């Protein structure tokens, strides 16, 4: 990801900010919030809210209090309080909009879990923070090898160091409970740091790692989606999708979150539809529903025993036939209703440019004209005016 105001390096980080993908405007940050109150001053006699939102690795955000009344702006690197030692984060939001975000995420203003900001990070703090971040990949690879050696059924997906380098949080996924006490002992002995193991779901793992979906865009969970609702196969059935696990599953291995985006619209549209197991009784035979088109409001029926021939009916016609079946009134055949449907002709567009043919550029070359030109060039020019060209 890159800013609109700076180009991008080969490794994906913007050239302008040189800060691991975060610039002063915070436009590179995923799940960023636009501060629309930045240019507005507080009413007279009212103090600004001293809450600050900070971002850590992979979009993890937390709220802190600016008790020292520091002059902070988006993109500043600050040193914050931690459970033990200190941590380093990047400012993503300040002012009154932080209160709105806290209310949105159900974080009370008087929560004892909200820590405070110590100071703006010095160069020594930043150097230690960067050196700790550089160790994460090697430690993640080594920890995976140690977990495999202990035959633990878990996957360590990410490692996050604290700003002072004294503690590391290991994020892992597992299908069942894992006894990793021996693993913690081995890692603490080899890495000489405090270890914290934190289990995350498969969707949370995909949001932390990021990636590109089958639609060609970045994953919704790593860009804007914050709540992960359960997705069932009924969402695919409502939308008349084929139950193909390879197409319906995302990078996390679960059903795609986008199946829920239009589910409510499909459910509202299906309220006016007869059920898919509807059977119509006619004098010609029993007709069973084969297919439903929600957008056009059509249903296809086929006679029992003649499954190859489908008859198209509208929902109103199906309801009419069902009402006649309830009254035990005779219905001759479905062909009487299908003949009433007006088949819409497809609109044909006229070609005003005259470029219908794909072979319009494949015209035969005029070789005769080129030969004549080459002959004229090969003729020798006469030295005297009376001499004829040879």
What is the topological layout?
Elements (H helix, E strand, L loop, with lengths): L50 E5 L5 E5 L11 E5 L4 E9 L2 H8 L10 E6 L2 H12 L1 H14 L5 E7 L5 E7 L7 H11 L2 E6 L2 H8 L10 H4 L9 H6 L6 H4 L14 H8 L8 E3 L4 E8 L4 E6 L2 E9 H12 L8 H4 L28 H12 L12
Parallel strand pairs: 2-5, 7-8
Antiparallel strand pairs: 1-2, 1-4, 3-4, 3-5, 6-7, 9-10, 10-11, 11-12
Please, could you describe this protein's structure?
The chain has 390 residues and is α+β, with helices and mostly antiparallel strands. Among the domains are: 51-121, no CATH class; 131-200, GMP Synthetase, Chain A, domain 3; 218-270, no CATH class; 279-338, no CATH class. Helices cover 26% and strands 19% of the residues. The chain has a five-stranded mixed barrel. Strands 9-10-11-12 form a four-stranded antiparallel sheet. Strands 6-7-8 form a three-stranded mixed sheet, sandwiched between helices. The radius of gyration is 34 Å and the shape is extended.
Mean pLDDT, as a whole number? 82
What is the succession of H and E elements?
A: EEEEHEHHEEHEHHHHHEEEEHHH
Class inferred from helices and paired strands: alpha+beta
Helix content: 25-40%
Cα(first) to Cα(last) distance is 70 Å
Give the helix tally. 12
Radius of gyration: 34 Å
Provide tags for this entry.
GMP Synthetase, Chain A, domain 3; disordered N terminus; 19% strand; 390 residues; 4-stranded antiparallel beta sheet; 5-stranded mixed barrel; alpha+beta
Short structural summary:
The protein has helices at 97-104, 123-134, 136-149, 181-191, 202-209, 220-223, 233-238, 245-248, 263-270, 315-326, 335-338, 367-378; strands at 51-55, 61-65, 77-81, 86-94, 115-120, 155-161, 167-173, 194-199, 279-281, 286-293, 298-303, 306-314.
């Amino acid at each position: 990801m890159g800013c609109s105001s700076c180009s991008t390096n080969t490794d994906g980080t913007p050239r302008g900010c040189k800060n691991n993908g975060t610039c002063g405007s915070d436009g590179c940050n995923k799940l960023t919030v636009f501060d629309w109150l930045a240019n507005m001053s507080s009413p007279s006699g009212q103090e600004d809210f001293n809450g600050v939102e900070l971002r850590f690795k992979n979009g993890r955000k937390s709220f802190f209090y600016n008790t020292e009344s520091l002059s902070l702006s988006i993109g500043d690197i600050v040193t914050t309080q931690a459970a033990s030692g200190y941590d380093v984060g990047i400012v993503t939001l300040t002012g009154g909009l932080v209160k709105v975000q806290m209310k949105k995420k159900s974080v009370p203003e008087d929560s004892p879990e909200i820590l405070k900001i110590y100071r703006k990070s010095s160069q020594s703090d930043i150097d230690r923070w960067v050196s700790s971040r550089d160790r994460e990949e090697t430690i993640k690879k080594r920890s995976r090898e140690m977990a495999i050696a202990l035959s633990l059924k878990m996957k360590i997906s990410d490692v996050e160091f604290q700003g002072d380098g004294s503690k590391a949080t290991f994020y892992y996924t597992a299908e069942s409970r894992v006894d990793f006490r021996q693993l913690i002992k081995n890692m603490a002995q080899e890495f000489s740091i405090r270890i914290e193991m934190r289990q995350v779901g498969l969707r949370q793992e995909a949001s932390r790692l990021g990636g590109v979906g089958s639609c060609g865009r970045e994953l919704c969970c790593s860009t804007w989606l914050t709540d992960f609702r359960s997705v069932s196969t009924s969402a695919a059935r409502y939308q008349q999708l084929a139950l193909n696990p390879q197409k319906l599953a995302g990078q996390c291995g679960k059903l795609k979150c986008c199946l829920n985006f239009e589910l409510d619209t499909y459910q509202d549209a299906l309220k006016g539809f007869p059920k898919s197991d509807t059977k119509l009784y006619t004098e010609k035979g029993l007709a069973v529903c084969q297919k439903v088109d929600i957008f056009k409001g059509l249903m296809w029926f086929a006679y029992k025993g003649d499954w190859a021939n489908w008859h198209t009916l509208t929902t109103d016609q199906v309801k009419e036939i069902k009402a006649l079946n309830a009254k035990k009134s005779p219905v001759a055949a479905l062909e009487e209703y299908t003949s009433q449907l007006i088949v819409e002709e497809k609109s044909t567009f006229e070609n005003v440019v005259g470029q219908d043919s794909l072979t319009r550029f494949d015209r035969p070359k005029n070789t005769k004209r080129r030969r004549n030109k080459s002959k004229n060039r090969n003729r020798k020019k006469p030295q005297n005016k009376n001499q004829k060209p040879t």
